[in-house]
């Protein structure tokens, strides 16, 4: 929604000021017509005032304000001297209704070339506006890149803030899936430990003897020790990784996201409503100005004796319509400013939450790798006795032990005598 920049008819050189009544000056409109302005009351007229015309008392004028800006003029309307235009760089507090149609159309065309309204939000046209400075340069911050709306794969309009919220909800879902993954890892560890323990009690090769038998028995025992290591690993995974993943940002997190969503959505709805009011006021102003033009043309060809009075009424209505448009634009800009401020504040909060989420999960995954390294270390320790006994395996020693236990006699057979 572009800020209306409106102006009076382009002032021409003053003429005949000496012969006019006190307080009156004459100007030339863009169409080449002469009109007269009372510098005290700001009254304007197409007809030359007579020398008997006296200036109305100053008490006939009063003041009113819009958003803190004082507006002066008869009947409370802005009717500034036309040459004020030359001294102003901005005429946002001047009633559009007092602007000549040609000048107003030129200004509106100029505005449309520099600003564009998309889904009730006003943006500068990048081709004609200087490049905006990012709020947080070089940081790729949320508060700099999510002002416009976009289309989802189904063609529905999604606001930039909704994209940020979806990122948060997706992060919550990823966190949940990571916890489920760790749960499956725990189940595997528990099942593995159970099977190792069960296997260690199998009586297979229990009759192996000697140093090899001792090494074999130790190997079977190491399975039970390894099973214990994996049980401890699964237990620590549950308490130090899975549970923190599940409890980080509990049920209140989604409620908080909904609060953010509703708050920003309400501000956006208000902005849409105020933009509609601006468009309605703009149309009303166009209708009033068109009516004023018609009555002015009727005066030129003198179709009615009442036309001059009708023009005065039409001019007042046009000025009032301009004031109404100013008021609607001010309300719109206030609403957009409030939405802007809340967008910056909330997007930065969502950015902080995302950093917190990533760092928390990073820490938990590091804990996983630490536990995994510890498990490998403990598993290695269960193998050390096995390694030592395997190094001590001696076939000769085993044969000696076995022979001593199972020998049947050391006398060898000899030849038979005749």
UniProtKB/TrEMBL annotation:
Q: Which InterPro entries match?
A: AH/BAR_dom_sf (IPR027267), F_BAR_dom (IPR031160), FCH_dom (IPR001060), GAS7_F-BAR (IPR037957), WW_dom (IPR001202), WW_dom_sf (IPR036020)
Q: F-BAR domain: which residues? A: 138-398
Q: Which UniProt keywords apply?
A: Coiled coil
Q: WW domain location, by residue?
A: 18-51
From the record, what ranges are coiled-coil? 282-309
Chain intervals for the UniProt region annotation (Disordered): 39-69, 89-111
Report biased composition (Polar residues) as residue ranges. Answer: 39-68, 89-103
Q: Does the keyword Coiled coil apply?
A: yes
Q: Name one GO cellular component term.
A: clathrin-coated pit
Which BP terms from GO are recorded? clathrin coat assembly; clathrin-dependent endocytosis; neuron projection morphogenesis
Question: What's this protein's name?
Answer: Growth arrest-specific 7a
